[in-house]
Every structure is written in structure tokens, then in C-alpha cells.
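Entry 14. Structure prediction run on the chain below.
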Amino acid sequence: MLRGYRSIFIALAGLALSAAQQSSNTSVDQGGAEQSRNATNNSPNAVVAIDRLTDEVAKQRDPYGKQREQREQRDIIAQEGMAYWTGPMFWVVIAQTVLAFGALIALIIDLRQNRKSSERQLRAYIIVEPGGVQEGRDGNYVLPVSIKNVGQTPAYALEHFGNIIVFTDGHPRDFYAKPEEIWVQFSPETDMVFGQGQNECVHVFQEMSEVRPFLERIRNRSAAIVHYGYVSYRDVFKRPQRTYYGFFHWGEDWSAENTLRCSFGNHAT
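Output returned:
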């Protein structure tokens, strides 16, 4: 503040000195031409002093005016830049949103796939193996099948359906059970827990009287005994599952070792 007032005092002193010199020059009559030139030369000094005084007063009133003006200019430039990038930033945000949504969907699909994979690895799997054809004492043929759980967890509510027919229309390997085929319940649903590695033998019976008319054709392999069916159960995840099977017997030997599989069945859901 002292520097500012000092400048003002200097400017005022210069102005007073200039006025005194001008008054002295006008009161003296000698050397009129020379005095006129001096007065003319001193006039710019007074103007300069006044301008200087004005600047100093303006600075004292607003010492930060230039900085504020520069700051305002920078703010205007920044606002113009923000207005220019508003459009591109809008599309960038849209793209980021779409990518995030796609990543979320991919994560959900991946989690579901992992869950399904885990269930497939941990669920129960029932397989059915043939036991051949045996002659029973009561005039029936006995067709035993072995049901085994080869999965990692128990199976529940087992139920066994199927049928036995004499197939005479072509090669028995091409037999395929249609939905309208007769499905006989070989064993009712059980409340027993069928544990991992558990094996159960189920005997299915067929009357000999229905097979005897075709014995010669079965021996020369122009007909065959076809035994087909499925085992239904629930896995540990409470999902219903089925294992289909289809076997045929022909020729002279109807043992388990000579039992063949049909195209139908022999797969699990």
C-alpha cells in the first residue's frame, strides 16, 4: 500500500511542477518564441502524468483485475471445450453401458454353465446291463437285468418300465420303440435311496407260450427276442432322469455274453 501512495504523491508533484513552469512561462514577456516552445514541450509531460495517475488509481481500486480477466478467459475456454466433448462423451457412456450389460449377461451364462457342469458331474447315473435269457421252472422265461448307480450321488424314487416282444420285421438291431408301444411297469416306484455304486438285479418274466411259435426263427436268426425299457429316477438335485435300454437275443446261445444292443435306448437323459 505504501508503494501505491508513493507513486500517487510523485505523480501529483510532477503535475504541480508542470503547472508552475507553465505559469512562469506565460508571465514573462522576454523570449516569447522560445517560451512558447517550452510550454508546448511541457504539455505532453502533464498528459503522461495524468495517465500514470489514472493507472495507479485503477490498480489501487482493483489490484487483481488482470488476474480475474485471465481466469474468466480460461473458464470460457474450458466451458467451450466441455461443450465440444459433450456429444462424444455421451456415446462413450452409452458404449460403456452396453459393454457392462454384455459382460453381465456373459457372467450369468457362465455361472449357469458352471452350475450345469457341476450337476452333470455330481448327479446319479443309472446304467442297465443285460443278464441273458433263462428258462424258469414255472413255464416262463426269465430275463434278468442289472441296474447300477455309477454316479457320484444317490438316486431316488426308482421306477422300471419296459416290454418284451418277438421282433420279426428285419434286423433286431434296427428296432426302435415308438411312443405308442406298450410300456409295462416291471417294478413300482420305490422310496429306497439308491446309493453310489449300488447294484440291483431285477428279473423280468415272459411266458414261454408267446415265444415257442418263433423258436425256430429265433435260432436261425430270422427273429429275435427284444427286451427294452427304461429306469426313471430323481437325482440329488431333484431333477427327473431316465436311462433307456434295448437288448435282443437270437441264435442258439441266449446268455448275457451273447446279448446284443438295439439302436433304441442305451442312453441316459
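The chain has two domains: 2-63, 126-268.
Filed with the rest of this week's runs.
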